[in-house]
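Appendix B. Raw example, untouched.
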Amino acid sequence: MSRGTDRPYVVVMGVAGTGKSTVARLLAERLAVPFADGDDFHRPDSIARMAAGIPLDDARRQPWLRAIGRWLRDREAAGTGGVVTCSALKRRYRETLRESSPDAFFLHLTGDHDLLAERLGGRTGHFMPVSLLDSQLAALEALEPDERGAALDVGPAPELIVDAATGLLTSGS
């Protein structure tokens, strides 16, 4: 849990296809805190680029990261806790989020390339194409030991992932 409150601030992170939205929604319900999907913070031009198979560069990611950071900061100011999704692929992206929410816990969902590609290929109604998976995996920087968070594999059912995540959060990781 976050220092000074029993309401956690969690960023569910990872590459496309890990089930961030599914796990984050379930986790927010379990913790009885607000939920936000990081995809909803993207600007329309960024969504169009990704839908066309063009990865975002750091400059295009910054407004998105700042918007997610503001959401976290607003939840902290209200004392509500919160769970938000964000790929948070690089440490510097996570640092941008920590500037707004120093106590945020990063739950890194990980998975095998083939499983993630299969999930992305079966998804409908989402802007992220399978073709961007490799660029996301290449950009991904795993959590470092000094970062507050943990990694969980996405092989198990989402409910089991949420059970494990809840255990991590209540143990003070």
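End of appendix B.
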